[in-house]
Q: What sequence folds into this?
């Protein structure tokens, strides 16, 4: 479809919902709706999926495509994607399976390893499963300290604890369990924190690597939503061969999870130049200063053009 026809489509931007990331999603939704209007789309409507009339609005609104600007449960985990499949409305970003696989860090790690992508050592605890004192001691002996404890299926650093003392582990597991059905306990990888955006469907391409610089113990909620200029270095300060390896692994992760449209994989690059993958976001933050749009801008892709490309990728089939 040429751009003239594309701009005549009726676009529903889906945001909000019930997750911890509701307000962030609404910010992304408003930014994407504005960008699509600036690009030339004549009918763009922002819909909060938590609204009482959402089902009626989306099913009877005559929308040609849905732009998903949701984060966390119900938005990134395949739920809204399955609903849109039933309504036969094309939508941006990954499908049901890719979204579900990307949202569950335990499942993601299985697929990373199968694709030969190094990731941190660790274990996943099922809902209600506890670690007794002996198991805690053994885990710390194997993985060392500090450890990261996080919900297996939540986003934006919610529920994460950096454990530096064995006495913290049980409380950290309980805290993470409040954010989901399973808990991930991982070794702490020291090094340079980077993120690698990828755009595309069958032939995904990496964007410039973003190096994340913080004064915090890790890239936590407070840091994530401070101005990008304080924390983003683009391109990342890496040797060319290390950067190329990180980009190749981000593309491999995109393919391994079955992502479409875009993804953004987070890595720690060790002192030896080894990019270790942490997770993949199937719907990254979508404000103009978020990581993926910031990277795209450095590649010469303005935010309205980026959002337009996501609509085009959604309609590829």
A:
């Amino acid at each position: 479809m040429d751009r003239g026809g594309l701009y005549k489509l009726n676009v529903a931007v889906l945001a909000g919902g019930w997750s911890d990331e509701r307000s962030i999603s609404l910010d992304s939704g408003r930014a994407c709706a504005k960008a699509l209007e600036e690009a030339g789309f004549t009918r763009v409507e922002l819909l909060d999926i938590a609204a009482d009339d959402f089902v009626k609005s989306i099913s009877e609104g005559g929308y040609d495509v849905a732009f998903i600007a949701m984060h966390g449960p119900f938005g990134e985990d395949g739920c809204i994607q399955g609903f849109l499949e039933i309504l036969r409305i094309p939508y941006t970003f990954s499908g049901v399976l890719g979204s579900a696989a990307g949202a569950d860090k335990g499942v993601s790690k299985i697929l990373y390893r199968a694709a030969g992508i190094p990731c941190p050592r660790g274990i996943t605890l099922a809902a209600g499963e506890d670690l007794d004192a002996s198991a805690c001691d053994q885990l710390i002996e194997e993985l060392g300290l500090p450890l990261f404890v996080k919900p297996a299926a939540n986003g934006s650093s919610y529920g994460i604890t950096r454990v530096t003392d064995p006495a913290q582990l049980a409380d950290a597991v309980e805290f993470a369990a409040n954010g989901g059905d399973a808990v991930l306990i991982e070794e702490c990888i020291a090094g340079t924190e980077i993120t690698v955006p990828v755009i595309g469907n069958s032939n995904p391409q990496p964007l410039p690597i973003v190096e994340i610089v913080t004064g915090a113990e890790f890239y936590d909620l407070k840091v994530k939503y401070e101005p990008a200029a304080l924390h983003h270095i683009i391109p990342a300060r890496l040797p060319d061969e290390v950067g190329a390896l990180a980009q190749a692994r981000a593309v491999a992760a995109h393919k391994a999870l079955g992502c479409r449209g875009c993804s953004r994989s987070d890595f720690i690059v060790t002192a030896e130049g080894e990019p270790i993958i942490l997770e993949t976001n199937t719907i990254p933050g979508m404000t103009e200063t978020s990581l993926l749009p910031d990277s795209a801008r450095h590649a010469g892709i303005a935010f309205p053009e980026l959002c337009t490309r996501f609509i085009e990728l959604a309609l590829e089939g």
Remarks:
- The mean pLDDT is 93.
- The radius of gyration is 19 Å.
- Residues 122-185 form a domain with the Dna Ligase; domain 1 fold (CATH 3.30.1490.20).
- The chain is about 35% helix and 20% strand.
